[in-house]
Design brief:
Blueprint: H1 2-33, H2 38-42, H3 52-62, H4 68-81, E1 83-86, E2 91-94, E3 101-102, E4 107-108, H5 109-144, H6 149-163, H7 166-178, H8 197-230, H9 234-241, H10 246-274, H11 278-283, H12 289-298, H13 302-330
Antiparallel strand pairs: 1-2, 3-4
Helix pairs in contact: 1-4, 1-13, 5-6, 5-8, 5-10, 6-8, 7-8, 8-10, 9-10, 10-13, 12-13
Length: about 325
Amino acid sequence: MLTYLIRRLIGAIVLLFIVSAVVFAIFFLVPRIAGATADDLASRYVGKSAGAEQIHQTAVRLGFTDPVWVQYGRFVKGIVAGADYDTGASIDHCPAPCLGYSFITQNPVLPDLLDRLPVTLILAAGAALLWLVGGVFTGVVSALRRGSALDRSLMGVALAGVSLPIFFTGLLSLSIFSYGLKWTYGGGSSPLDATSPLDLVHRMLLPWITLAFLYAAAYARLTRAGMLETMGEDYIRTARAKGLRERDVVVKHGLRAALTPILTIFGLDLGLLLGGAILTETTFSLPGIGQYAVQAITNNDLPKVLGVTLLGAIFIIVANLVVDLLYAVVDPRVRTS
């Protein structure tokens, strides 16, 4: 088990360096290959109202005229040890880990991301709990009632959940339950303004359900497929022949074996959401990382977009690491593999 843990930790660290190289290539190398100049890259740092001279000075100060390998070394050094940015009027320090420095707001990006992270965490955690419990339960029930009217109805709802986008279900839910029936808060109600846990649930219930409806549908279909496969295995028949209760057969033997693919996609989905649930946060006007990314794109503020990308990649890597460790709990065969 310890060897398995060490291997996964080393793999995660190596993957972080690979991700840094890929992100750098996407934002800096690929545009240069496509014909972008140093001034073109700098124009994404200073907003839409900057003049040509200001853009050129920014390109020189940021070192976009240096060789690519020098720029990448400076990029990695900034993440690991921090960086100094010459704004023209002063030299500002971006402490490690520096995920970027916005020349428009003249502030490091990471503190802004950390300020908005609690909103995204609350949204992702609540929705994840709903879609995991609801999706797995629906999938198990459908598998045990295969071919019945209940099975077809549940899978029909799951198909609708996969097909309908957030900006449709979100706006429809707001129109009916918030502005029509007045049962829930409308858009723009931050969970950080909640005065009690009950008020928090009241504020976030509609975003949670809307987001969970999309993901729960996929989990229900995947759980159903896994349960149908495992419930026909020989060890399931052996467990029943030994006289075990049907609940123990389904939960301890059938569901446990079907959870491995569920854990895999759960780690990916949760990591992606922690990097910003863009459509949900925009639809419900939640001040999270997703809304922050949209505003950065609108304002042509590349460092903020870069920071969101790096943070999202880190969350995905950490989530996959946790999932790898949970494999050893769900499937004991992993411990010796």
